[in-house]
Amino acid sequence: MLDTTKILSFGYSDIYSFLEYGATTAPDDDTEAIISNPFSVAKVAGLLGQFDGLANAFLADVGSNKVQLVSEDAAVVPDQVFVDGSLGALNPVVSIRFPLQLRIVSTPDPSVTLGLMSLGIIAVGCRLKNKIRKK
Hints:
alpha+beta
């Protein structure tokens, strides 16, 4: 029996969709990929028994990494995606019916990214300085 108990909270993430049209106008040779920004996962408070165990197991697999939603779908059929405007014209809810995968991804530490960017800026500065000296 399926249960609809929420065990994890995925928060919010931007979702990007890429569509490659095939050689014909038929949708069955189109390919679509959907990917989200990596996001953190949290366990819902107050879980008991097996639900608590499932949530803990998932979080143990994720560890300190983040999760990313990914879908790669060949032969896109237009009626598998619909927009529900029940929240108003400016806030539609999009339901995607084809399978989505949750991938565990590591994200670089911001200090490493800033350090590499700083090195790049220093290198560009040195090259410009050398160019000016040569003139």
